[in-house]
Amino acid sequence: MSLREVFDNNPDRRYIMFGGKGGLGKTTFSAATAYWLAKQGHKVLVFSVDPQASLSDIFKRDIFGKGPVEIMPNLYAQEIDADRRIREYQEEIRQKIRDMYGLDEMPEEIENYIQAAAAEPAMEESAIFDEVVDIVVGGEYDYYIYDLVPLGHALYYLSMASVYDEWIDKITKLRQEMDEYQQVAAVMQRSKESEEDQILRELQDIKYRINTSSSILTDKQKTAFFFVIIPEEMIILDTQKAASLFAKFDVPLLGYLVNRVIPPELASQNIPDYLVHRLEMQKDYLTKIDKVFGGQVMARIPEFERDITGLPMIERMAEAMFGGDA
Amino acid sequence: MTEEEKKAKFMDGVKSVLYGMAGHDMARYALKTRGSMEHLFILITMGDLLGIPILPPYYSLRLLPYVVPQISTWKRRMLREKDLTDALA
User: Hey, are the CB atoms on B27 and A167 less than 8 Å from each other?
Assistant: First the structure.
């Protein structure tokens, strides 16, 4: 099945993700897919969950931390500024504490905690994770294209969802039990209904947000996940390993896209030995890829003569991926 | 005072006595249990405050405003030394 058919036959798959090792072309494919879908008349948002995002580079526009930026009609791109989100979030917490207790200044202990928490290594990922929820819950776009982080991080991202989910489950249960005791006491003392537990409400909201995000990642009807690979031994091995790990998290893996394939027609031209060897090497690995990944290989994308940056190059890439006459 | 009001007042008194005899201890126990759970809850969510790192700080920050008043008593309770009289309390 070609990549184009995959999209044409499954219009419900609104969440498109490209994963793979760093530097293989995840951002390029994300941008080109977004471009193609936008040209088809769909409203598309391509966004990066990588703290070191490169959508700005590929579209040649500084979009970092600016929210969804219109690149061309129907095509929007967004890079999340995690640091700013964390700062705003901290300030939100401080404001809430000040409002709730009528304080002018934060108690030192609390302030220290807020600052220490923000320095945790998981904070950046969590902040991005949380913002993604806002993005997808908004539902303003026909397609959401996730320009994912490199493999290791993506796994962390996935496992974070399930760890969070369990954590929240446990403490929500504890909180509910506490609520029961509160009510028992209230009944005994014949007082009016006990106050609604705000923490419980807050926990349920957090749970909802985490579930929304993680259920998208594993939704077979709405989500399509593609691995980006190149014809090289290490990449093939690593991707096989990653694919089995992703399978454990129920990620709906649709197929593999082989990038950077040297055009075979070059072989018939007068080319230097260097290229002849590269071509031979790739031929071997392409055979191996077909053997290992079989019918799941969706497309072979040629190596271009220059970088894919700017819309004209993205258009050429989209043609290579989906065929012409978009 | 009408007959009705007298009766209501009397009944109220009876209820209070009954509550004192039977209910009060149970209510106290329920609240005490809840208090312990409250501290357990803060330990799970805000453990970092005692130097016990517990996942995940991004979301525990969201709960912080609600537990600000409990934090000082909680720290005292968690860090204080225990002795025999604790068992009697």
Answer: no
